[in-house]
Task: structure prediction
Amino acid sequence: MCDDHFNSEAKKIQDNRSPELKKVIGFLKKIPQKGYLFGHHDDTLYGIGWEGDEGRSDVKSVCGDYPSMISFDLGHIELGNEKSLDNVAFSKIHREILNQDKRGGIVTLSWHLDNPLTGKDAWDVSSNKVVSSILPGGENHSKFKLWIGRLCDFINSLKDENGKKIAVIFRPWHEHTGSWFWWGKKLCTADEYKALWRMTYEMMRERGVDNVAFAYSPGSEYNNTDEYFERYPGDDIIDILGVDTYQFDKEVYKKELDKALNILKQAGEEHKKPIALTETGFEAIPDSTWWTEVLMPIINRYPISYMVVWRNAREKVNHYYAPYPGQKSADNFISFYNDKKTLFLNDINKKIHK
Ligand code: BMA
Result:
């Protein structure tokens, strides 16, 4: 490929990203020199024993500081609903995204959207024709266009006090190396999956979305970089390379996480992209030293830009991934917080100039 072609392609990519977004991507790239951001899903929306209290966060109640990254899910925005799949008003999610940005933190968004073919949820894997049905020419293509339109209206409406669009990370079509979502491995071909990404990207660009960094996050099933990139839609689309992996058995998790991050590190170097542990955790954290004895020894060895643990559900007993005051691992979480590599909100506001 001649240089001119490369330069014009590179320029096209750059042109698709707002100055604020480029700043965030640049920030994510330099983060590993200092450590990694700590993220928590739905952090300020609800927690154990509370919901909607202004400024409240289980993480802050334990360590005195907010996560530097907060993750939110946009499932059911596609339907035009007032509330998300986890029963939170989108107006509240909107407000909390603005609050997180105002505090100086970063936002990442996932999307557990419904199955457009059956009308059931994201976990409905009864048909392997769903992806093909929304691609151009498919029976649900125009429905999907409407859905993407609603998603884009929300993302375009994320503006700060100066009217500038807030730059966020967007991580759709995640864990596609498993087969529990309708876009999963056994539910579509590699070409269909890649086409799904490209269509999503192009539709979003057409709707004027220039404020999202796209994250690619398979599960940890891959055993080398070729497998990691098997369904990769392309460097022009993706800004961040990630992986999702959870602890069930301790020894299996340690091995799996180490393997996944090792390959991810190579993938990031080869493609010159920041890398991240886009979802992880141990449900109900029954191990009192999990943060410093299991998680940290592994992740501290890799140049990840951030890590995210999943939500503290207020409606499902024992479905939580961050501690709350009195929780078994709360003291240990404070040691994790005090480690110099873990970057919470005060750390990034004090130590790192965005
Ligand atoms: C899952 C669980 C579900 C939730 C979904 C989307 O991992 O937490 O209860 O609906 O994520 O947030």
Q: What stands out?
A: The domain at 2-352 is CATH 3.20.20.80 (TIM Barrel). The pocket of beta-D-mannopyranose is lined by residues 73, 75, 85-86, 112, 310-311 (CB under 6 Å). The chain has twelve helices and eleven strands. Residues 250-271 form the longest helix (22 residues).
